[in-house]
Write a structure and sequence with these properties.
- Helix content is 27%, strand content 20%.
- It is α+β, with helices and mostly antiparallel strands.
- The longest helix has 24 residues.
- The protein is built from 5 helices and 7 strands; from the N terminus they run ααβββαβααβββ.
- Helix 3 runs parallel beside helix 5.
- The chain has 2 domains: 40 residues, no CATH class; 143 residues, no CATH class.
- GO terms for molecular function: carbohydrate binding.
- Belongs to the FAM3 family.
- It is found in: Secreted.
Length: 197
């Protein structure tokens, strides 16, 4: 028992002396509590932040393509938004049937037309304007109901590729609406080859 007590005291004295020696000879800025806490932790690999793409696409459009995104409005506060090559346009909700018809008629050949509803395209968009949009290739413009969300991309004077989504509609349904009286926003996005225009 005396031998064990002597060994314990000797080990304690050696540990104290070793601690004193390290504290006296190691510079204070070389060891910190934070550095000691890091010992034994596994290194964390951090992925680089993803590069932002035009119109917030998940992946970039191939070279020689235009990027676009059309987002319908939703509710009273969420305006329709159109992005083309990172240029953003926020649409107000007033009646623009006449202006829209003039714009479509006066647009030169080789023009891309991007459209979206915000409030109510069923009553605010006049029949003449709907007919003009239908002539551009819309299959849903005449199906718009009260407060339907609708987005559409069309080309004047050339044909869009068959593999892009050109139109989308979401009807108001009181049992499924995201907002009071309005359905959820909808969007279409994609890439248009520049050589088509």
């Amino acid at each position: 028992a005396v031998l064990k007590l002597f060994a314990f005291l000797l080990a304690s004295l050696a540990a104290w002396y070793l601690g004193y020696f390290v504290a006296a000879h190691v510079p204070q800025d070389a060891v910190s509590i934070a550095a000691l806490q890091e010992i034994g932790k596994k290194p964390v690999l951090r992925a680089p932040a993803p590069k932002r793409q035009k119109c917030d696409h998940w992946s970039p459009c191939p070279p020689g393509n235009f990027a676009y995104r059309i987002l319908s409005g939703g509710g009273q506060q969420r305006r329709a938004k159109i992005c083309f090559e990172d240029e953003h346009c926020v649409i107000d909700s007033t009646d623009h049937s006449g202006e829209m018809m003039d714009f479509i008629r006066n647009a030169p050949e080789g023009t891309l037309l991007l459209m979206a509803t915000h409030d109510d395209g069923s009553t605010r968009l006049k029949n003449d304007a709907k007919k003009l949009v239908e002539e551009l290739g819309s299959k849903e413009i005449k199906n718009i109901k009260f407060r339907s969300s609708w987005v559409f991309i069309a080309a004047k004077g050339f044909k869009l590729p068959d593999n892009i989504q050109k139109e989308k509609i979401n009807h108001s349904d009181q049992t499924k609406n995201r907002y009071k009286g309005w359905p959820a926003e909808i969007q279409i996005e994609g890439c248009i080859p520049r050589n088509l225009i």
